[in-house]
Design a protein that fits this description.
This protein is an all-alpha fold. The protein has one domain. The chain has 2 helices and no strands. α1 runs antiparallel to α2. The two termini are 14 Å apart.
């Protein structure tokens, strides 16, 4: 049976990684998709995306540190 602190650390790490990767994809996606005129659509809220990337990285690192200290 997996102990509760280890599962919670894994969930926090996965949540942070999901937030980080989803926002990196949202930032990169307009560069991958070109419109008919060849111009890529711009990210409307670039600042919000960058803040979410930072938050996702912090949460992922926090979850990883908790995972290591919980006996990972």
């Amino acid at each position: 049976m997996i102990p509760l602190p280890q599962i919670l650390a894994e969930l926090i790490m996965a949540l942070g990684a999901a937030l980080l990767l989803a926002n990196v994809y949202a930032l990169v996606r307009p560069r991958l998709k070109r419109g008919e005129g060849g111009d890529a659509p711009r990210v409307q809220a670039r600042g919000r995306v960058l803040i979410n990337i930072f938050i996702g990285a912090v949460v992922m690192i926090w979850g990883f540190a908790s995972f290591i200290t919980a006996g990972g």
